Amino acid sequence: MAKCGECGPGYKTPLEAMKGPREEIVYLPCIYRNTGIQKPDYLATVDVDPKSRTYCQVIHRLPMPNVNDELHHSGWNACSSCFGDTTKKRNRLILPSLISSRIYVVDTGTDLRAPRLYKMVEPVEVYWKCNLANPHTTHCLGTGEIMISTMGDPSGNGKGGFVLLDGETFEVKGNWERGSKVPSLGYDFWYQPRHNVLMSTEWGVPKCLVNGFNPADLEKGCYGGNINVWDWTTHELIQSIDVGKNSIPLEIRFLHDPDASQGFIGCALSSAVHRFYKTQDGTWAAEKVIQVPNKKVEGWLLEDMPGLITDILISLDDRFLYFSNWIHGDIRQYDISNPQKPKLVGQVFLGGSIVKGGPVTVVEDQELECQPDPFVIKGKRVQGGPQMIQLSLDGKRLYVSTSLYSGWDKQFYPDLIEEGSVMLQIDVDTHKGGLKANKNFLVDFGKEPHGPALAHEIRYPGGDTTSDIWI
């Protein structure tokens, strides 16, 4: 085993990562698109160290050079997939822009607490070299390269391809995928080299969802319903697993154990979690293991209100599964010791569309006896619902932000646009399960210098449960 100082970025194993230091700062992209504020999106650095005098404060803001980018998800230039390679450092954060298709590379190595812009990849580079657009998920590869999934082509049509960046120069090298088959839609991905596989998911056609959600688009084929299976060696699409028409499968997570041949995917519109797994004949399959029932409502877009599972993650010891119901307003914790039969062990409501006193009346509910109270913390009523989640390495703290995507925020939670999003922290019982909001933790992005902002995905400088892949 490599001694301290003789290894590359990250940790040797997921269980070693759980012993890593407590997070002291986090990074979040903050969005101004669709808010009426004509300012660039920016990367916020937030102090999450309880011992610090600036605890729960934004201590640095790095504005991008352009407006209306829609920063969304981020990833690292190197992670635990490069463990053992002493030439690699986790010192660049890759920030793709979902709408402009611009890719920013941020230097976090020079000053962790005050990142600076290192490089900018213009959209034309992605268009011309890859015929792709709308980049979403970034993962580093063991080769040192960086791979980014996409949702569309330069014309706004759906296209599930992958952009490869050079890990040193950050130049666009071209497409990762090969062969004639390319999915009509794309979104998230995860890879597992020991099983020679990459799995990708499907959100929707960019030009259909750019400004909001129209139920009429569901029957036009604008939204996804497949897990796409790729051969890791040949880079070819070899299988598509149907998890339900218009189910909108979003975040996909393999178990962290690199030997594992299974994982979970959260489907937004169908509000279901599927377990995907390798079969005896070497193909892949999926089975629904969790279903969040729709609620019959009045005063909302549809009569049947889905939970809308928008983010999902797995603890590093592969013991617990977490996901957020952005519309219903709750976060759930499941014991997945038996992956085929997840057991609900924790739940907490943090806002949402069904709170008492709001415009929505629940007329039929299979789970709750009454509508939950609005969530108030430090005198502030939280608008929106729990969305992006990130778990501490030791699994004891779950961080939550409330913005999904500015076009959908504006449509489903107009008060979120007016008041800005928040970041919250949930205390996790890692023994028998259980979730409880930390009433001393609130980061209010409604009080930003240029006006209320929409903070999205949460990243730790030292890696986390959704950016690190062990090979």
Automatic annotation (TrEMBL):
* A Gene Ontology term for the protein's cellular component: membrane
Keyword Magnesium present in the record's keywords: the answer is no
Q: Which reaction does it catalyse?
A: methanethiol + O2 + H2O = hydrogen sulfide + formaldehyde + H2O2 + H(+)
Instruction: Provide the top EC class.
Output: oxidoreductase
Keywords for this entry? Acetylation, Cytoplasm, Membrane, Nucleus, Oxidoreductase, Protein transport, Selenium, Transport
Gene3D superfamilies given for it? YVTN repeat-like/Quinoprotein amine dehydrogenase (2.130.10.10)
List localization entries.
Answer: Nucleus; Cytoplasm, Cytosol; Membrane
The topology of this chain with respect to the membrane is: Peripheral membrane protein
Biological processes annotated in GO: protein transport
Taxonomically, the superkingdom here is Eukaryota
**UniProt function note:** Catalyzes the oxidation of methanethiol, an organosulfur compound known to be produced in substantial amounts by gut bacteria. Selenium-binding protein which may be involved in the sensing of reactive xenobiotics in the cytoplasm. May be involved in intra-Golgi protein transport.
The UniProt entry's sequence similarity note says:
Belongs to the selenium-binding protein family.
Record protein name field: Methanethiol oxidase
Please name the source species. Eublepharis macularius
Lineage at the top is: Eukaryota, Metazoa, Chordata, Craniata, Vertebrata
What gene does this protein come from? LOC129342196
